[in-house]
Amino acid sequence: MSYQLPAALLNSLAGLPGYNRETFEQVHMAAEKITSLRLNPAKTGTPEIAQEVLQSLSSSGVSKVPWSSEGYYLPARPSFTFDPYFHAGAYYVQEASSMFLEQAVRATVDLTTPLKVLDLCAAPGGKSTLLQSLISPDSLLVANEVIKARAALLSDNITKWGAANVVVTNNDPRDFSRLPGYFDLVVVDAPCSGSGLFRRNPELIAEWSPENVTLCSQRQQRIMADVLPAVKENGIVIYSTCSFSAAEDEEILDWLASHFELENIIVPLEEKWHIVTTVTNKRNCTGYRFYPDQLKGEGFFIACFRKRSGESVRNGKAPKPTLANAKQRDVMAPWTNVPADYQYWQHQEEILLLPPLLAAAMPFLQQQLYIRKAGVKAGQPGAKELIPDHQLALSGLVSEQLPAVSLELPQALQYLRKEDPGIDTHVRGWALVKYKGMSLGWAKFLPNRMNNYYPKELRILKEITGL
Ligand code: SAM
Questions:
Q1: Which of 94, 121, 158, 300 has most ligand 1 atoms within 8 Å of CB, for mutation?
Q2: Minimum CA distance residue for ligand 1 atom 5
Q3: Would the CB of 146 count as within 6 Å of ligand 1?
Q4: Ligand 1 mean position, distance from CA 404 (Å)
Q5: Does residue 67 contact residue 206 with C-beta atoms inside 8 Å?
Q6: Residue 239: how many CB atoms within 10 A of its CB?
Q7: How far apart are CA 370 and CA 110, in angstroms?
Q8: Ligand 1: does its nearest atom lie under 6 Å from the Cβ of 39?
Q9: pLDDT, tens only, 377-419
């Protein structure tokens, strides 16, 4: 794979803050692969569990991502596919520079209050899972992705993460103009020309052209213009790309500050992070550049604004939801551990568990957006028992009292391949299948076999070698 960077790119970056052509080219030629991940605090909440998960990935050489509270570098890339913790949602494999979103969020919003947050360009879910870990449980995250197949992947990753306070939508940015002044925080991790990822994915180099940078820049303006009405007065907008090009970074900030009532916000940096501060020519907006030759991460750009004007939400009349009846709730009671203020919504044959702010928002969101997933799907209550859903198994709402079968690594991988690991157990009927205390999914144990309810579309397809 060639790491020869386009001359037009290198020339266009001349003069940008922090750009050093020599070291920039060298670091791309060296082609070091950096592996980083972010732990899921909801599943690795104690130092012992966090340590165990990291140890299982690498016995030594793990270090902290300096600007992230849950981010770690691994000395080499393990096979995440063959790690049950990965499938249990114990961590998300995320590029280190992007984890700086945490600092941007902490610098701009009060995380102790209930917030309505939109992640507009969310698939596959790196920023969404980070946002979810930062906001309070009584906040609401709308994770949106315009491309249908990618929205499905986003949904799966949100299910794995296990949180109840997330709605996954599949809408075009312009649809959000139907929610004027709705969100306290909007994150736009915009589609871009991708030069920041050339070291990691050199196959992207061939797709780069100055014309594409211009197209991306125009699209970024369109996306921002479409979504800005959905930000409330004094709400926050965070804009990011993985492009080095000023047309997609500083020039977008100048364009935003010139066309909208936006006040740029500074994010405090530590010098030892080696993140480069950039100030735009026209409107003095500050943004942050991440160069792979200066820090341990890929190329990234981020900036924050406060919206100085805003319309207010007009919540029209929305249809009332159908709630689960007393019998259905009785059937579900032994399976779940749900806070008292949650709502139980009936959706077709299934029951959704929704935290209060999400339940209050849903009738309106359902009218305006195409919802792919909301809260936690508990399953289908029958006359006597629940047919439990995978979402419940992976969530924090599943009862700790349920029968569970713990598997060692080889059997856990067989389970994740949707095979029958042939376990000798006294457990009969429905049970959670666990790996070192973390739920992987459901199975039904019969006298001579196990029915594996791991979702077919999520099963491991790769051949296991060397175990
Ligand atoms: N935020 C994601 C994460 O951290 O995992 C990565 C997002 S990626 C940089 C940009 C996303 O924007 C892609 O998922 C892409 O499908 C989506 N996208 C592409 N064209 C778009 C458009 N016109 N409007 C909104 N989103 C678009």
A1: 121
A2: 126
A3: yes
A4: 38
A5: no
A6: 25
A7: 29
A8: no
A9: 999 998 888 999 999 999 999 999 999 999 999 999 999 999 9
Would the CB of 196 count as within 6 Å of ligand 1? Answer: no
Q: Is the domain 96-307 a CATH 3.60.15.10 member?
A: no
d(CA 395, CA 132): 13
CATH 3.40.50.150 in the chain: give the residue spans: 96-307
pTM above 0.90, yes or no: yes
pLDDT tens column, 14-30? 999 999 999 999 999 99
The CB density around residue 372, as the number of other CB atoms within 10 Å, is: 19
CA distance 349 to 329: 13
Q: Is 147 in the pocket of ligand 1 (CB under 6 A)?
A: yes
CATH pick for 315-400 out of 1.10.1040.10, 3.90.1150.10, 3.90.190.20, 3.10.450.720: 3.10.450.720
CATH 3.10.450.720 in the chain is located at 315-400, 403-467
